[in-house]
Amino acid sequence: MENIELIPNPSSLMESMREIGYSTEAAIADLIDNSITANSRYINIRFSWNKNSPWIATIDDGCGMDMAELKGAMRIGSINPLDKREKDDLGRFGLGLKTASLSQSRRFTIISKKDNNYSIAEWDLDSEDIKINDKWSIKTYDVSELRPILSELNDQYLERMTQGTIVFWDNIDRIDVGEIDNKKEIKFDKVLNDVRSHLELVFHRYLSPTVGKRPIKIIINKSDVEAFDPFFTKKSKELNAEVINYNSSIVNVQPYVLPHHSKVSKDEYKKYEGRNGYFQEQGFYIYRNRRLIISANWFRLIPKREMTKLIRVKVDIPNTLDQIWKIDVKKSNAMPPVFVRKKLRNIISKIEFSGIRVYKHKGQKLISNIKTPAWERVIKEKKIQYKINLNHPLVKKYINNLSEEQKDVIEDIFLVLENSFPQDLYFNDIASEPKNVQQTEISRDDLEDILLNYYINEAQPSKQRLKDIMLSDPFAKNIEMTKEIFKKLKYES
After folding, report:
1. CA 16, CA 283: separation in Å to the nearest integer?
2. DSSP classification of residue 216
3. What pTM does this model have?
4. N or C: which end of the chain has fewer CB within 10 A?
């Protein structure tokens, strides 16, 4: 038997590593993981268009690295993912720094300061050593040798830096800014905003004060990144927490039910519905060491549906379960193991009624106030249907005046209307824009005409008769106008 060593081709492998699938925001989040692990309190992210030669820098005040540590950090696969790590370590594969940086740029430079000494190293995919000579070769520099493009950072940060690390990307070629020159900078700015939104969510628990933990501060181009709490904990209902013991580790589960849209302001609703609306933001939110990995996912345990849209469940897992949960290189995907899935399914069965109850209460209240609705709710073979109420006074009176042939026609019309209710459109609208979904308005004159033509047969209706009218459609939903009409007609209600 002969063992043959096959060393990967540097140029080919590193070009392949660029295709892992990082978005710009996920790539920067990976750098922030390193900064947090290095005990950084302040993380400054700089975006610069630089006259069509954009660069991005991530600057932290962490513990920094000496040259030996920096060389280790620049090594491809510097950490075995199977090795035991510190419980607060946000890394896993020893690839994040490299894969994240190379996914966006062809060259990245790291400047680190520790014990009053600078250490500087660079990966450059277009260098002669990598591209032509097939060497796993990085460049190292003295501070005085840094490229002119870094002069702004020299002036603003290096001299004031007591310790910390700068990751500098240039030769950026993976940020899509389109083909139109005069719009490229605008699109670059949009990327910046996408990064901000992503970091506000992914690191919201690090950005917010927590018992026993000091918050970090992230700044993008001199503007603070504000924590975005997807659970709206100030106004949401916190349900009973659950603990799942698995593989000598603990998984903590905390469900929340967000308030009904009628209980929050328009601005609050717009903020907490997230990018995709309340309907799409329901589900489990998986955190690894308080860092969000995956959001709004039921893992196919239940479908996303209207009546559970207010339920969001926080799930905390330790880094000891990385392999079992299949945490990927980008730290943007996870899959609970079978045992945990069963436990999560049981938790869902306990909590989903809490989300439904918000709407059920609203519905019950509405129905109880209307004695004679225009529509009736019918349950047939466990299926819920909505039908035109043939006993509604207006409908009943009209049908009674028809011939048998005309009755057949109107029944067909009602059947078409009932069968054509725009269910999908309604659910989509009520999920995305509930405050804008309104019923057809009825004028006071039309309401009075309906009253006099179909409801009132006597000069002075009894108080009971007037009360019954006010509890029927459309008067119950237009109660103030109805009272005004009664007053005008001198009805004593």
Report:
1. 34
2. P
3. 0.72
4. N
